[in-house]
């Protein structure tokens, strides 16, 4: 008998998330009883301090697992019993599985971004890359970029200490010199082959762009992790110049593919999930 799955997503401002539909539709296709619920901190008037209670409640209600998104991917770490090697190395969790009385943290963001990158930007130059943002998603993307062969990654964040912590983390895994804290965006952009936005800027509720359009040029490739809207201001500026681009839908889908497998134990059809995502009006 196939398992029943009750999963959810904890985050702030997530009403527009396509993740529930992605999981439930694939569950239907696999003949699973699969329910996926949003646990949105904003309408509940909660913040990250509610995470202990929310995790406990999910366990009491026999949730199979939870996805975790902004702003909880790092705050949740002390509340877990075990971490996968990848989650421990990245220092951020986006998937928690409840199993045998334990809370086990995973990170599928890294794999998700890498899969989209390989499918869409596999042939791009990657000597120097600028990354905007050093939060939980940024940590996963940075690991993916270096694993995919980026030679030098300059990381910019409004919180300089957070950027330094991420660079230290990357240095431990990939060696010295591969990642550095960015300190002059204009100069870094002038030398870059590509730029990746891992900040929330560009979301419908946080409009704008982390990179002024004047710093873009045709030769750059530009990648996003924001997917609502699918075409952010950054991507719109980049496409107007003829840049190669990667939208945030790719990471959203491919991280969900792995999370589905962790929750259900069944192997999902990645191309079917991608097609379903693309069929949704975003």
UniProtKB/TrEMBL annotation:
Known role: Involved in the biosynthesis of the chorismate, which leads to the biosynthesis of aromatic amino acids. Catalyzes the reversible NADPH linked reduction of 3-dehydroshikimate (DHSA) to yield shikimate (SA).
One Gene Ontology cellular component: cytosol
Keyword Glycoprotein: no
Entry's family note: Belongs to the shikimate dehydrogenase family.
Domain Shikimate dehydrogenase substrate binding N-terminal: 9-96
Lineage, highest ranks first: Bacteria, Pseudomonadati, Pseudomonadota, Gammaproteobacteria, Pseudomonadales
Gene that this sequence comes from: aroE
Quaternary structure annotation from Swiss-Prot or TrEMBL: Homodimer.
Active-site residues (renumbered): 73
Pathway(s): Metabolic intermediate biosynthesis; chorismate biosynthesis; chorismate from D-erythrose 4-phosphate and phosphoenolpyruvate: step 4/7; Aromatic compound metabolism; 3,4-dihydroxybenzoate biosynthesis; 3-dehydroquinate from D-quinate (NAD(+) route)
Name the record gives this protein: Shikimate dehydrogenase (NADP(+))
UniProt source species: Pseudomonas trivialis
GO molecular function: NADP binding; shikimate 3-dehydrogenase (NADP+) activity
Binding sites annotated in the UniProt record for NADP(+): 85, 133-137, 225, 248
Domain Quinate/shikimate 5-dehydrogenase/glutamyl-tRNA reductase residues, every copy: 119-199
Record-listed E.C. numbers: 1.1.1.25
NCBIfam families: PRK00258.3-3 (NF001319), PRK12549.1 (NF009201)
The reaction(s) this protein catalyses: shikimate + NADP(+) = 3-dehydroshikimate + NADPH + H(+)
């Amino acid at each position: 008998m196939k398992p029943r799955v009750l999963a959810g997503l904890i985050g702030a401002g997530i009403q527009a998330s396509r993740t529930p539909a992605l999981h439930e539709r694939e569950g239907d296709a696999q003949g699973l009883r699969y329910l996926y619920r949003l646990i949105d901190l904003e309408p509940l008037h909660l913040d990250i301090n509610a995470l202990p209670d929310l995790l406990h409640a999910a366990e009491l209600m026999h949730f199979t697992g939870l996805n975790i998104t902004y702003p909880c991917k790092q705050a949740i770490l002390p509340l877990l019993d075990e971490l996968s090697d990848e989650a421990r190395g990245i220092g951020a969790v986006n998937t928690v599985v409840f199993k045998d009385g334990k809370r086990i943290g995973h990170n599928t963001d890294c794999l998700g971004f890498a899969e989209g990158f390989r499918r869409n930007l596999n042939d791009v130059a990657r000597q120097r890359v600028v990354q905007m943002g050093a939060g939980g998603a940024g940590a996963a993307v940075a690991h993916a970029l270096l694993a995919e062969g980026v030679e030098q990654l300059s990381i910019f964040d409004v919180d300089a200490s957070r950027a330094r912590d991420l660079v230290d983390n990357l240095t431990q895994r990939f060696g010295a010199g591969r990642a550095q804290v960015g300190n002059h965006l204009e100069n870094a952009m002038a030398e870059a082959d590509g730029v990746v936005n891992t900040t929330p800027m560009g979301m419908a509720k946080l409009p704008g762009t982390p990179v002024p359009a004047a710093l873009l040029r045709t030769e750059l490739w530009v990648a996003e992790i924001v997917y609502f809207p699918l075409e952010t201001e950054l991507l719109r500026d980049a496409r107007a110049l003829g840049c190669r681009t990667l939208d945030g839908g790719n990471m959203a889908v491919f991280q969900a593919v792995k999370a589905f497998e962790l929750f259900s134990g069944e192997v999902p059809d990645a191309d079917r999930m991608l097609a379903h995502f693309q069929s949704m009006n975003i």
